[in-house]
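in:
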């Protein structure tokens, strides 16, 4: 799976030089044979158009289903982000020393909140790596 946004031309050639060379040679041989009248090609346009239409429908449905999967994943990830923000606000608002049995200093509360935030960020990174 390719996860980078930019693919350089050198990388593209590195991955696909063998199939490109094969197709170039094959197409060149067929074109040369046709040019020198060794072979003659007669394709009925009806068969080509029917196959082209079927391939267009197939590719269209595949593209639509992959976009639906992408959009569903985006909605779920957005819900996780919104829930994380709300959870962060809850931690900031509800982790106080108001109901503590002993006096809790602001430094201790800050340490507890920081630990909770960092654990949650760690969970988010683990989830991102898993997905």
């Amino acid at each position: 799976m390719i996860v980078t946004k930019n693919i350089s031309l050198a990388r593209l050639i590195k991955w696909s030089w063998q199939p490109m060379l094969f197709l170039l040679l094959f197409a060149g041989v067929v074109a040369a044979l046709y040019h020198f009248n060794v072979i003659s090609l007669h394709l009925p346009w009806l068969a080509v158009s029917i196959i082209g239409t079927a391939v267009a429908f197939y590719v269209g449905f595949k593209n639509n289903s992959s976009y639906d999967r992408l959009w569903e994943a985006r909605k779920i990830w957005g819900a996780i982000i919104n829930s994380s923000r709300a959870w962060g606000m809850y931690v900031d608002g509800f982790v106080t020393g108001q109901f503590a049995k002993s006096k809790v200093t602001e430094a201790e509360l800050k340490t507890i909140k920081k630990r909770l935030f960092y654990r949650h960020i760690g969970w988010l990174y683990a989830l991102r790596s898993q997905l």
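note: Residues 45-130 form one domain.
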